[in-house]
Amino acid sequence: MCLAYPYKIVEIKNEWTAVAETQGVKTEISLQLLPEPVKEGDWVLVHVGFAIQKLSEKEAEESLKAWDELLKQSEPYLE
């Protein structure tokens, strides 16, 4: 099982790397595992620094909502 988080591509640095952002956090990611090209504004799932799948904006929003709900449920265990 892998856990991946949706990020929006904000800058293409070169053929293999990009800067992506989610919830105000920017990070450099690898594009090497994607089967298709991406452009600025596209959403991708990121797992350990690698974009692994392109998403629609709707899919990204649904995924972010699911992550938020999951994290809210785990708050009592983090205290």
From TrEMBL:
Pfam families reported in the protein's UniProt record: HupF_HypC
Hey, which family's this protein in?
A: Belongs to the HupF/HypC family.
* Gene3D superfamilies in UniProt: 2.30.30.140
State the Gene Ontology terms under molecular function. carbon dioxide binding; iron ion binding
PANTHER family per UniProt: HYDROGENASE MATURATION FACTOR HYBG
Signal peptide as annotated in the record: none
GO BP terms: namely: protein maturation
Q: What is this protein called?
A: HypC/HybG/HupF family hydrogenase formation chaperone
Which superkingdom?
Answer: Bacteria
